[in-house]
Design the sequence.
C-alpha cells in the first residue's frame, strides 16, 4: 500500500494533504548543524553515505513528513561528468573548468561519485517505514548547464543564454550530455529505493518562450520518457521555478506526472489552467514561513483551498530558509493536517 504522498502522485485526491518541504533536511535544524560541525563541509556530508542518510531522515523523525527528500545537490551530475566542484563559504558552489572556454569532450567522467549517492538512497529506504515516500532528485539540464558553462550561479544566466544563442549546436551537445547522465543517475536512485523523483529547474524563469521550449521542455520530455520506459510507474515531479505562464505548456508537453508550483504563481490560476487531474505541488512562499503569524495560516489555507479539486502535495514555492523557526514549521504542519476540503 503506497503512502499518502505516493498515492497522491498516482492521482488520488486525498482529503488529508500529504506534505513535505523542499530543503527540509538542512541548516534550519539544530541536529543538522550539530552533525555538520562534527563531520565537516557540505560536500563532505553529501559524499558520506551514512551522514547523508542521517540528514535525510532527521526532518522525518522530527516532523513526520510524508516524504523524505534525498540529501544531496544538483551539481553532483557535473561533478560526476568530470568538473571540479567546490562550495566556497559565503560564495556558493564553483565548477571548473568552465565550459565557456573548455570543450565538453575534455572532461573525464567519475561515475563513482554517483554510486555514493545510490548507497545513501538504499540506507534511507531501509530506515523508512512504508508510509513515508522516498524522493530522489536531479537538476534539470538547463539549470545544470548554467553552472557548467559559467562555473557558478548568476542572477540572469547571461553567459549561458548568450552561448545558447551564439552556438546552439554546441549548447545542444551540453544539454544532451547532461540529459544522458541525468537519466542514468535517476535510474540509479530508483533502483536503490527512490519511489518518485523530482527534476529541479531552478533557473528556468530566465528564458524567453522559444528558448524555454528548446532548453527546458524538450530535454525534460526526453528524461521523463526514458525514465518511463525503464521504470514505468515511478512518478516524476517537474519543478520549473519562475516559469510563470509557461508552466501550462511545461505541464502539457513534458509528460511529468506532477508539477511543482513556485510562490509567484497564483494557485487559483494554476488550479484552473493546468491539465485536469494533474497532481500539483506547492506553493507557499518560504519567506512567509519564516515570518509566521496570522498571515501564515491565512495563506496556507488559501493554497489548500485553491487546489482542493485536484491531487495536491502541500509544499513551499522553493526551499525552506535556514533561519526559519522550528515552531513556524510545526504550526504550518498543524494547519495542513487539520485542513479538510469544504
Sequence:
Amino acid at each position: 500500500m503506497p503512502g499518502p504522498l505516493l498515492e497522491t502522485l498516482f492521482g488520488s485526491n486525498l482529503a488529508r494533504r500529504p506534505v513535505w518541504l523542499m530543503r527540509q533536511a538542512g541548516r534550519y535544524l539544530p541536529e543538522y548543524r550539530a552533525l555538520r560541525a562534527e563531520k565537516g563541509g557540505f560536500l563532505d556530508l553529501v559524499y558520506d553515505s551514512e551522514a547523508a542518510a542521517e540528514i535525510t531522515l532527521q526532518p522525518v523523525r522530527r516532523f513526520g513528513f510524508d516524504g523524505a527528500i534525498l540529501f544531496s545537490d544538483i551539481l553532483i551530475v557535473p561533478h560526476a561528468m568530470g568538473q571540479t566542484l567546490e562550495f566556497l563559504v559565503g560564495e556558493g558552489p564553483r565548477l571548473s573548468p568552465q565550459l565557456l572556454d573548455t570543450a565538453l569532450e575534455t572532461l573525464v567522467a567519475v561515475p563513482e561519485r554517483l554510486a555514493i549517492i545510490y548507497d545513501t538512497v538504499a540506507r534511507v529506504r531501509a530506515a523508512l517505514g512504508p508510509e513515508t515516500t522516498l524522493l530522489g532528485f536531479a537538476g534539470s539540464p538547463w539549470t545544470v548547464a548554467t553552472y557548467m558553462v559559467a562555473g557558478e550561479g548568476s542572477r540572469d544566466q547571461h553567459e549561458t543564454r548568450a552561448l545558447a544563442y551564439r552556438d546552439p549546436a554546441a549548447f545542444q551537445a551540453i544539454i544532451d550530455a547532461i540529459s544522458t547522465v541525468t537519466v542514468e543517475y535517476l535510474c540509479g536512485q530508483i533502483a536503490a529505493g527512490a519511489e518518485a523523483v523530482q527534476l529541479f529547474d531552478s533557473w528556468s524563469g530566465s528564458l524567453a518562450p522559444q528558448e524555454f521550449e528548446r532548453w527546458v521542455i524538450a530535454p525534460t520530455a526526453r528524461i521523463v520518457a526514458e525514465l518511463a520506459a525503464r521504470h514505468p510507474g515511478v512518478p516524476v515531479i517537474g519543478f520549473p521555478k519562475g516559469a510563470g505562464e509557461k508552466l501550462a505548456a511545461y505541464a502539457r508537453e513534458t509528460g511529468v506526472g506532477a508539477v511543482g508550483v513556485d510562490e509567484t504563481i497564483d494557485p487559483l490560476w494554476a488550479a484552473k489552467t493546468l491539465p485536469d487531474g494533474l497532481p500539483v505541488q506547492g506553493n507557499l512562499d518560504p519567506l512567509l514561513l519564516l515570518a509566521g503569524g496570522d498571515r501564515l495560516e491565512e495563506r496556507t489555507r488559501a493554497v489548500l483551498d485553491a487546489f482542493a479539486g485536484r491531487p495536491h502535495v502541500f509544499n513551499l514555492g522553493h526551499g525552506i530558509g535556514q533561519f526559519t523557526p522550528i515552531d513556524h514549521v510545526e504550526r504550518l504542519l498543524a494547519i495542513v493536517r487539520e485542513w479538510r476540503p469544504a
Notes: The chain has a mean pLDDT of 96. Strands lie at 67-69, 84-88, 92-96, 133-139, 196-201, 236-240, 258-261, 280-284, 312-316. The chain has 15 helices and nine strands. The CA atoms of residues 76 and 114 lie 7 Å apart.
